[in-house]
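Hey L., structure's done. Input below.
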Amino acid sequence: MGVILVGGVLVWYWSADEGHHFPNQYDDAPVDVSLEEALSDHGLVLPDSAEGVRYTASQGLDGYPMSARFVIPCSWIPEFVSENRYVELDSDEEFDYDTVFRAERRGVPISADTSYYTRAGGEHRYESHALVTANDADCIAFLTA
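Output:
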C-alpha cells in the first residue's frame, strides 16, 4: 500500500510487490485475504479432495471479487454443488459470460461437456457462478463470487 500526492490530492494505491502473499494465490492478481477467509466470507466451501487450488480475492476492490480454480474427482461434483447451493443451468446461454472469460484465462477448458451453475446472493450477499469441465475421472472447476 502506498500514497502519492497528485495535484494536491492524496491517492492510495496497491502494489503487488508490497502486497501480501498467501498460499495458492495467483501471482498476477491482487490478493489481500486468505483463501479460507474469502471462501468463508462468500459462503463457499471447497471439497477436501480439491487439488491444484489457485485463487484471487480482494476485499479492497468494489464488490470483493474472488475466483478459484481447482481439480476434484468428478464423482464429488454433486456434493460440491449441493454444499454450495448451486443450481445447474439448462444451457450456457443463461450463464455469466464474464466467468467463462475468466475461467478460460485461467486455463479451464470450455467444451460441450462443461456444466454451468449459479447461486443467487440470497442469505449471502454475494452471488456465485461455477463451471465444471470433465477431464477423464477428474473435473476442473472454476468459481467466482
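Residues 1-18 have pLDDT under 50 and may be disordered. The chain has three helices and eight strands.

-- N.
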